[in-house]
Every structure is written in C-alpha cells, then in structure tokens.
Amino acid sequence: MINQSKTSDTHFCFESSNTSCPKYIYSTAVRASLYILLGAVIIMTVFGNLLVIITIAQMKQLHTPTNFLVLSLAVADFLLGAMVMPPSMVRSLETCWYLGNVFCRIHSSTDVMLCCASILNLLLISIDRYYAVCQPLHYHTRVTNCVTVIMILTFWSLSAFILFGMMLFNMSTRNAEDIYRNSFQCEGSCSVLQSRMSSVISSVLGFFTPALVIIVLYLKILVIARRQACSIQRGFPLHSTSVKATHIFISELIDVACQL
What domain of life does the native source organism fall in (predicted)? Predict the structure, then answer.
C-alpha cells in the first residue's frame, strides 16, 4: 500500500500523503445509522456502569463483598466505554486512524488492560458465588470486605502485569516493528506488532485460563443448584445447609439484578 498510485475512484485517509492508507467511505445513511447505534451503545455502557458505581459507593448497606466485586467490574466496563469504545467506533466507521501513533499505542494498551481486568473481575465474581453456594458455612468468615478488596487490587495489578509483560516481550521485536512500519504500514492505520510469545502469554493469562475457570465454577454451581431443586421437589426438608445456600444464592442474584 506504500507509494500506491492515486486514482479518481480511490479515497485515502490523507490525500496529500503518498503513503496513506486507502479509505472506504460508507454512504451517508449507513454512516449516520451506525453512528447513532454505536453511540447509543457507548452511552448506555458509560452511564449504566456509572449508575452502578455511584449507587454502590454512596449506599453503605450495599458495601458487601459481592457488591464490591460488582463495583470493580462496573469500573472496568465504565473505563472501556469512556476511553476505548469511542475511538474504536470512529476508526471502524471512518476506516482510518487520525489520532496519531502515540495515542494508537495508548489506546491499544488500555484496551488490553481493561479487557483483562473485566474478565478477571468476572472470575472473582464466579469464585465468590462458588463459595456462597458450595461452602456456605465458611463463606462469611473467608469472604470478607477486606479480603475482597485485596483480591480486587491483586487482579487489577495482574491486568497491569499482563500489559507490562506484553510491552517487555515486544521490546525484543522493536527492530522488526520499525522495519514493518517503514516498509509495509501505511499512514492512517492503527496496528501494534506483537511477538508470538507476548500474544500467547496475554491470551492464556488474560482470557483462556479465566474463562475456563469461570465455566468450571458455574457448572459446579449449576450441578449443586439442580441437585437441591430435585431435593425440594421430592419433599425433603428445607433446613439443610446446602438448600439454604441455594436460596441465599438465588435471593442475592435477584438483589444484584435489581441494583443493576
């Protein structure tokens, strides 16, 4: 795409540059519709999570371990909606990146860290629900506000560590990245060259491993919930600890849904 000939039928991100990326122009109706749709999604993401943050932060009766985890997840999603999604929307619809190489790196790095933080918070919520249902007698002694805050800070630090690890591994490919930028990358694109090692490590630590643990934990919760539902249908007494835990779990889910 470098030094490509310009014709009257071809549009480019920077018409005055010989190294500009080609630009695809959507029709006015399609572009306006997509801007309205994606803009509405961004607004709902930002203000919906902001409402959760304000509600939990201001109401002391909501300062419970589960709600702290919901608060941490809302912060991650709020930052994604406010910092990552708007530039991504413009890049997708304009098919060009006009914010410069420095902000491209900042945007890509922030995207990776916040996505990792979001899925790690989902992992914390699944662990919290597992203890509430499967070990109800030890839940209130093991899962306290202090322990929850420490775990939240640890997982946010892990997200930053994954990002730092990616940057560290990518330093070894800096020469290759410079060659790629000078020879192949056109002006108006936003792409970050990653080494294979950094891609594998970030994918495994930031997505596949947490997703696998979340699936296993919720399958375990589902098995116990179905077992207790069968016990209820067969007429067993409801005073057993595991049955009470199931009822507590269901009521807490309803409370969280009402808060959201």
Answer: Eukaryota
At 33, list the tokens.
């519709």
Instruction: Note whether 27 and 74 are within 8 A (CB).
Output: no
Lowest mean pLDDT among 65-69, 210-214, 244-248: 244-248
Stretch (H or E) spanning 239: none
230 within a domain of the structure (yes/no) = no
**Tens of pLDDT, residues 135-176:** 888 888 888 999 999 999 999 998 888 777 666 665 555 555
Instruction: For 9-29, write each residue's pLDDT tens digit.
Output: 577 888 777 777 888 888 889
Both structure tokens of 65:
């371990």
Q: Specify whether the CB–CB gap between 128 and 73 falls below 8 A.
A: no
Domain containing 189 equals 28-217
Name the token pair of 90. Answer: 């413009």
Tokens found for residue 150: 């420490």
167's CB contacts (< 8 A; 6+ apart) are 109
Tell me, what CATH number does 188's domain have? 1.20.1070.10
Residue 239 within any structural domain of the chain:
no
Residue 63 lies in a domain: yes
**29, amino acid identity:** A
- What are the beta bridge partners of residue 187? 20
Predicted TM-score (pTM) of this structure? 0.79
DSSP 194: -
Number of other CB atoms surrounding residue 248 within 10 Å:
14
Contact assessment for residue 44 and residue 260, using Cβ atoms and an 8 Å cutoff? no
- Give φ, ψ of 173 to 5 degrees: -110, 20
